[in-house]
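Final paragraph of the annual report: two paired records, presented back to back.
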Amino acid sequence: RNVLAPVVLLVVFGICGLITLGQVTSSIGIVAVAVGALGALLPVSLVVWAFLWVDRWEPEPPRTLLFAFLWGACVAALSALIINSSAVLVADEVLGQGAGDILGATIIAPVVEEAVKGAFVVGLLVFRRREFDGVVDGIVYAGLVAAGFAYTENILYLGRAFAEDEALTGQAAAVITVLILRGVFSPFAHPLFTAMIGIGCGLAATSRFGILRLFYVLVGYLLAVVLHALWNGSATLGGGEAFAGVYLFVMLPLFVAMIVLVAWQRRRE
């Protein structure tokens, strides 16, 4: 159980990672994937370090934290890629060409991505209950899952920016622009969304009532979806002013509130 189960999980993660790598490579090319992978290391290193720093007083098992990251980077990323693409194609067929892209960004992606990311955190709550002590643990697990997911997603965005321009100076400018937008201004976007599920699971772990546990998890998931949809919708439909408004008046205050919550809960625990 202690050896075979981790080996099986690593094999599953590896297969999912290879399939995802193959899909992304066929779309943008191997050179663009390499550029994206190197560029995405900067923001993901910062995010992972931050969550490990939060977890330093009562560290969770390193193997579990590693599996959380790999779940996000491999299993969740591949599942979201397949489901999102299929749903967008169906929406285009049913509602007309172009409808899939809008629905995909504003509705499909938030619902699907938060579900596949949150599945790991909920699985820990159900099957590894002793690893869950409260809200801080939920935020750490959810944050590492989301960091892995964001790493794979950033490879695609950075690699696509590199592949869309043939001139070397244009490629460098495009990659730097995407890296600044996703790696400097919003590296905690995905972790912030999925942390809502982690908070819900953390509250459920400390609750004595079964129906209340389910309520906490569902509310956390709904909040994650709403925040994700608001973020994507402001970028897709609202334009620069709407996106800046959501960033400044919703995401930044929420990020500060998350820091305060983590500090309070860690001291309380």
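The closing record of the year follows.
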Amino acid sequence: MKERIRELALSLGFNRLVVASPAPMPEALDTYSAWLERGFSADMEYLKRDPQRRVTPSMTFAPARSILIVSVNYYNSPPPPPENMVWGRVAGYAVGLDYHNVLRAKLRDLFALIEKEVGHPLSRRAVTDDAALFEQALAARHGLGFVGKHTLIIGPKLSGSYNLIGELFLDLDLEPDEPYVGTCGDCFRCGKACPTGAIVPATGGSGYVVDANACLSYLTIENKGGIAPAMRAGLGDWVFGCDICQDVCPYNSKPVASPWPEFKPERGAGHYLDLLGLFDAVSEEEFRARFLNSPLRRPRLRGLRRNALVVLGNKLRDGKVELAYLRHRLAAYLESEEDEMLLEHAAWALCQGRDKPTALLESFLPRIKSTGLRQAVVGYLEGE
């Protein structure tokens, strides 16, 4: 039955399936707790709630006797950047439709095939990054792959890390799989390439962890506040997420294109986002409609505008966009914006070029009541 289920999963386009036990993962609790104690979850408070639940899979779905863990490749080779657009890069997993919806639908299809194969009704719960479950530890314990230094699961036989993971909890007895043994060896390309140094040694020096406070994926997606000035240059062209640690990984040197059309760039936002288009007169409702079924809705319009301002500042500093053109395109937006955090990011961005639009920046000041943000803008004006 286990091998037949694996065949069914592969027939749907999943590239790998392993069977996990719902037994607790006490060894993972120490790792997770140490990560929390170092403050590496940033302000994602939901990650701090009930760590014991995250390492006790049976608490996710009590009837489960087995857990099917599946992975699917989401990689699509990025085309050359558009020449007629001031663009920002989008992480590869987000160029198509929202993986939560796609994976859940595919897991429902898999369940229907399994139930038909078994010949009697089953209880189940499908999970994909939407439950209090330490998915990485569970996947590693049962051989979906091994944990790379970038903390992502690296699959066997050079299948790399450009994979999305989902789980199907079943009240069906299946023999759990053993761990897969793999290693990064002495390679630390991911950590060296990370522009903000987010990949750091774990407590005790065994393995590595990611400090969310410095990770571009956190800063551009989950972060609801401003991006610290010291981190802004590290964003480079990334307006949503980041793929740097995966792009430099030797295990990803020969990536295979995703088998599912839902993850193709033409189905979603694509690899490049029109930065200046985000500042056109659109409401939050229009923004949500534009990015319907796309992961790019996660940071909301405010968050994407914040990210876009940082990327525009980086482009201005690197000579990839002219100040006069940038001011012209942002003029209407800057005159009407009342969000103090966005005004501060705009001031920073406009000061990254050799010339500063002093009069424009001074017009921001009456609209900024926060002492800290006001002082920051004054500092940009004075060259600090």
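The chain has 15 helices and eleven strands. This concludes the annual technical report; the extension proposal builds directly on these records.
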